[in-house]
């Protein structure tokens, strides 16, 4: 049985990294209000709450930097508010979301693939700049190692309508 998967991928000037979200930190099932409108689905109060502590970047030092970057003590969750899915041809779509990181919000439209077997899966990638959320990437070794501003959130979410 497929499961929901979510990764944050980034890159430093010396190496790439990936932080995997443990799906056990998600609510098992959540009821969401939605309205079907022609070729779209509009949502109300559909918020995916991701506990920052649910991310594992593969090494304790990277995890520590990740939590410092996200200001986990003050803002322990990343929120993704699903607003609308527009269904396109050939099992493609577009999802409109509001992402909240460290208390800052930004709206995105993300292209997605829709896979409908055995449950609906919505697969896509969101490219974002961490500076859009007033976050400063950490540096190491007196500035010799620098994390790039762009990160990619890759998701494979399960849903039933």
Could you write a compact summary of the structure shown?
With 161 residues, this protein is mainly β. It is 7% helix and 56% strand.
Helix-strand blueprint:
Blueprint: E1 5-11, E2 16-21, E3 33-37, E4 40-51, E5 55-56, H1 60-70, E6 77-87, E7 92-101, E8 104-116, E9 120-129, E10 139-140, E11 145-146, E12 150-159
Structure description:
The chain is mainly beta and 161 residues long. The protein has one domain: Lipocalin (Beta Barrel). Helix content is 7%, strand content 56%. The strands form two sheets. A ten-stranded antiparallel β-sheet has the order 3-4-6-7-8-9-12-1-2-5, covered by helices on one side. A two-stranded antiparallel ribbon has the order 10-11. The radius of gyration is 16 Å and the shape is elongated.
- Which segments are poorly predicted (pLDDT under 50) over 5 or more consecutive residues? none
Shape category: elongated
- How much of the sequence lies in strands comes to over 45%
Label the structural class: mainly beta
Q: Average pLDDT, to the nearest integer?
A: 86
Just name the CATH architecture.
Beta Barrel
How many H/I helical runs? 1
What share of the residues lie within helices? under 10%
SSE ordering? EEEEEHEEEEEEE
State the CATH superfamily name.
Lipid/polyisoprenoid-binding, YceI-like
| CATH first level | Mainly Beta
Biggest pleated sheet: 10 strands, antiparallel
Strand order of the largest sheet: 3-4-6-7-8-9-12-1-2-5
Q: Write the CATH fold name.
A: Lipocalin
Rg, Å, rounded: 16 Å
Distance between the termini: 18 Å
């Amino acid at each position: 049985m497929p499961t929901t998967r979510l990764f944050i991928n980034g890159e430093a000037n010396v190496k790439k990294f990936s932080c995997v979200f443990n799906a056990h930190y998600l609510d098992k099932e959540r009821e969401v209000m939605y309205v079907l409108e022609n070729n779209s689905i509009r949502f109300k109060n559909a918020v995916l709450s991701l506990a920052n502590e649910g991310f594992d970047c593969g090494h304790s030092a990277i995890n520590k930097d990740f939590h410092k970057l996200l200001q986990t003590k003050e803002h322990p969750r990343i929120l993704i508010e699903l607003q609308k899915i527009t269904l396109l041809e050939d099992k493609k779509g577009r999802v409109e979301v509001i992402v909240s990181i460290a208390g800052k919000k930004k709206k995105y439209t993300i292209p997605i693939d829709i896979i409908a077997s055995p449950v609906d899966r919505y697969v896509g990638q969101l490219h974002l700049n961490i500076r859009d959320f007033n976050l400063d990437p950490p540096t190491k070794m007196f500035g010799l190692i620098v994390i790039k501003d762009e990160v990619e959130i890759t998701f494979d979410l399960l849903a039933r309508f």
